[in-house]
Amino acid sequence: MALTTEEVKHIALLARIALTAEEEHQYLNELDDILLNFLILQEVDTDQVPPTGHSGSMNSVMREDEPGISSPKADVLANASRTEGHYIRVRAVLE
Fold it and tell me: Phi then psi for 87, rounded to 5 degrees?
């Protein structure tokens, strides 16, 4: 598939990048090579290949999220650097 310089300029405009004439010529060749590779991939027969979501097996290393008993409030507050009453005091994020 042969791209034109105008198409490369249009792609650059969409990507919001400025190209010199030398870069336009360079990207013209590079994009042509990329599109050629896609044409080659389209010729691969994938009719007998089942669709997959992942290339490897999916085994979760995380435990199931199940409700449990919370830590005592006093233990949680003891780990906080600053407290105010029964709450953890944090620095203001917004002014």
Answer: -125, 160
Query: Smallest Cα–Cα separation from 33: which of 3, 54, 53, 68?
Result: 3
Q: H or E segment at 88?
A: strand 87-88
Q: How far apart are CA 71 and CA 81, in angstroms?
A: 17
Asked whether residue 34 is assigned to any structural domain, the reply reads yes
Which helix (H) or strand (E) segment holds residue 7: the answer is: helix 5-15
Q: Is 39 left (phi over 0), alpha (psi -120 to 50) or beta?
A: alpha
Mean pLDDT across the chain: 90
CA distance 46 to 60: 29
Residue range 50-95, pLDDT digits in tens: 888 777 777 878 888 899 999 999 999 999 999 999 999 998 888 7
CATH for 14: 1.10.20
The residue among 56 and 36 whose pLDDT is bigger is 36
